[in-house]
């Protein structure tokens, strides 16, 4: 068993997927010799060659559109978008082509494309380098959207996404790339890809998070425990399709739910989760489902991003409100 | 035209070109006296911009900036283009065009805010006629075309009135030429015959990707495909770049339509301070370009022709030291913004939802109870 960072785990996951299936090809800017700006593809071009790891021209629409053609030809393209804010030049290809080609072919053509996007803030970056675009893709029928919060999930979920026959937007919380480590046992069988999971049990309220905010919620639960309050944390893992099973089960037990994400609050994933919980758990709820999210401004200047991102304090404040309702 | 236009060799020797000559604008001659005076001014610009850039790189290393994109090696391309601008021209820059910003009389410290995370734009874009820098590659080339179209429709092109006529400079790199937006910008520019100069600094690298990944042929040849003229100039030769961009801006301003200028140069430093160029390029390559340094060659020319003496160079060195110290001190003093600014800057008038969120943040900042 080895201890890996999320970045290394994703690299190992890509490597194994490429070893197991000769049709897996990687496309992206700077992913070859440089190994990607976050080094997620480090060493892969050296070992698998330039036909399987393509350094592309600087054109996101071109990258994704080309991946569509490769997929139609029987390949399994894994696209790297360099940063979240640069996915929008490819938005048309993703939303109008990647998402709809199965439908447009009357269900006859699969489109096994994975679009990897480092996402989220908290790293002191300049503008366009800290966005959370998950809702935009989750709102698009034909796409599946997942995100990992730890190295073990990163390793397995990426391989599962590559093996999956539908296009998957795979969001990688960039601020966790090097800050989380975990032991990885490649012999262990992973759970299913499109499944949420209770990552900490508790009884007083349920925190629902995904990607970078899972760590925030775990820290909040730690702090709450010191004050004698027991919080359950659910890692959504899959945003679309949403796996509400473990969430609903948890909320029925705790009676309270707080959804936590970095993306803007309005019209976001939190609204979807809150609506679904209300429909399924109405008679168990002791308080309205609350949201702790990014505000409805463009992502702020890095010097003040800590005032914008959901913090442990903001999460605990929401828990207080839910409990005191 | 895909041969390389050059007026000053890497050894600091003036050479002739059949079509292009260095003839400084009368206003520059008025300001700096004579041609050697203008050349000294260009050398001063390049030297100070380089010092600023080196200082900013050091500031990043000391944790004062989150990131810094160095312009080291591209001083001639940027000062050549920047000094060729007329006061009324408008620039749509990239994040690396510190030299052009310098020519627009933007305080260099005001360029740091974007990378320190304290400010989106440290200057008044209208006053300086210099748009906020664009991070998303190539997007602003379309804005440049739209601005130029507006100038055309306003009758601010080809009137012969120098105070009224406008050209627009759209800056981008070799990597950017692959973007759909840049290609669409060229289609629109040609279609509407707008007064835009596409100023392409081919610094040979888009992060780790060599220019050959973007194009098999000299990039200047694309102009012909879109239907407007293109010039390929030695971008490490400030005289040639000045001459070519001056001519291109004149072409645009007088209503003759768009032009592409490819300035062939080299990014000597890392792409940004987070980049490690040793992973993808060799020292040999760097050495070749070091011998073509834009500052050395003009200094050599001025020394050999008696255009500047030791005392002048010593004074310039002292001025650069002073600039460096000043930039360092004032960077440290840049104030953090209020977290409330983005709430106030999102819409013309704050929306009810956002006003409630703003109140929540204000209360958190004050440590008071949040009113709900
Ligand atoms: C749409 C988009 N994709 C990717 C990036 C990330 N990125 C920033 S600079 C850069 C390379 C740009 O190369 P070039 O256009 O040649 O300009 P240079 O940086 O060399 O001046 C890349 C890929 C970006 N900023 N925008």
Question: Layout of helices and strands, plus pairs?
Answer:
The complex is a heterodimer of chains A (325) and B (372).
Chain A: E1 2-5, H1 6-20, E2 24-28, H2 44-48, E3 53-55, H3 60-72, E4 76-80, H4 91-98, H5 101-104, E5 114-119, H6 134-138, E6 144-147, H7 151-163, E7 168-173, E8 181-184, E9 197-200, E10 205-209, H8 212-226, E11 231-235, E12 238-240, H9 245-254, E13 257-264, H10 269-281, E14 290-294, H11 312-323
Parallel strand pairs in A: 2-3, 2-4, 4-5, 5-7, 6-7, 10-11, 10-13, 13-14
Antiparallel strand pairs in A: 1-8, 6-12, 9-11
Chain B: E1 4-5, H1 26-32, H2 35-61, H3 75-84, E2 90-92, H4 98-103, H5 113-116, H6 125-128, H7 139-153, E3 168-173, H8 180-192, E4 196-202, E5 205-206, E6 209-210, H9 222-226, E7 230-234, H10 238-253, E8 259-264, H11 283-290, H12 294-304, H13 310-332, H14 341-344, H15 352-366
Helix pairs in contact in B: 1-2, 2-3, 2-12, 2-13, 3-10, 7-8
The complex binds thiamine diphosphate.
